[in-house]
Amino acid sequence: MTPLIQISGLTKTLTGQGEPRPILSGVDLTVHSGDSVAILGRSGSGKSTLLSLIGLFDRPDGGQYLLGGKDITRVPERRAARLRSEEFGFVFQRFFLLKHLTAAQNVAMALVNGQGWAARRNRRAKVMAALEQVGIAHLAKQRPPRMSGGEQQRVAIARALVRQPKILLADEPTGALDTETGALVIDVLHSATDRGCGLILVTHDHAHANRMRRVVRLTDGVLRPEPRGVLI
Ligand SMILES: Nc1ncnc2c1ncn2[C@@H]1O[C@H](COP(=O)(O)OP(=O)(O)OP(=O)(O)O)[C@@H](O)[C@H]1O
Fold first, then answer.
1. Helix (H) or strand (E) holding 154
2. Where is the ABC transporter domain (predicted)?
3. For residue range 189-213, what is the model confidence (pLDDT) as tens digits?
4. Helix 149-161 and helix 179-191, axial crossing angle in degrees, nearest 10
5. Which pTM does this prediction carry?
6. In this predicted structure, what is the pLDDT of residue 232?
7. How far is 34 from 25, CA to CA, in rounded Å?
């Protein structure tokens, strides 16, 4: 079966104010439908940089990136924007919810606005299904300031899932949560893979990483498999 994501020899050098810094020097990564991969690595090793390339927020300098078998290594921004919204769901450490909107309204923000009663009914059904999927349908009318951190992150995950993305990219999604709540959020993210979604999780938490099918470590600009049980 064609992999969802097939990355080979990806390179990226970042040019800030100082000298250009090679961050990725030949990353290989293949993700299939229903796969889950945790990316570990010390702070500054380039995990977020890699995720931004996978999520098409930026382009690599070299290597190849195939999405569903199609070469998107140098995709122009217009098509990248469409792919970002149609193929990917994003979850970050910060929840980025609008405080004055309810949970359901926050999730609905991710859907294209359609006019008329049928479009509204369809949108509402999708929103409720996404909230149901993350276990907080009962909080649909609640606003973020009255929700716990874990509940807010689940709203953010529902927002990422409502368009039924093929790939879920999560960058430190438990960074702002306590251990127990974080584990629950990892459960919710992982359950998306049961429906065929591919999940890439960047985390510092070894226990959370160990919940994924595969664990890799970004060191010296390349991804290496992390032996199970040697997570320190
Ligand atoms: N736009 C940029 N220009 C120059 N350097 C950058 C830029 N963005 C990030 N960097 C540097 O690139 C390196 C990799 O950053 P990145 O955020 O990808 O690491 P990370 O592994 O995600 O780190 P952390 O675990 O702390 O989030 C860091 O040293 C960072 O300071």
1. helix 149-161
2. 5-232
3. 999 999 999 999 999 999 999 999 9
4. 10
5. 0.93
6. 46
7. 27
Q: In the chain, how many domains are there?
A: 1
Closest ligand 1 atom to Cα of 50: 18
Calculate how far, in angstroms, residue 48's C-alpha sits from the geometric centre of ligand 1: 7
What is the mean predicted confidence (pLDDT) over 114-140?
Answer: 87
Indicate the DSSP class of residue 95.
Answer: -
CATH of the domain at 131: 3.40.50.300
| Type of residue found at 7 | I
Q: Are 107 and 159 in contact (CB under 8 A)?
A: yes
Give the bridge partners for 168, in sequence order.
89, 199
| Domain span including residue 93 | 5-13+24-225
Q: Which of 13, 15, 23, 200 to mutate to test the pocket of ligand 1 (most atoms within 8 A of CB)?
A: 23
Q: Is residue 19 part of a domain?
A: no
Give the residue-averaged pLDDT of 37-42. 97
| DSSP β-ladder status, 88-92 and 167-171 | parallel
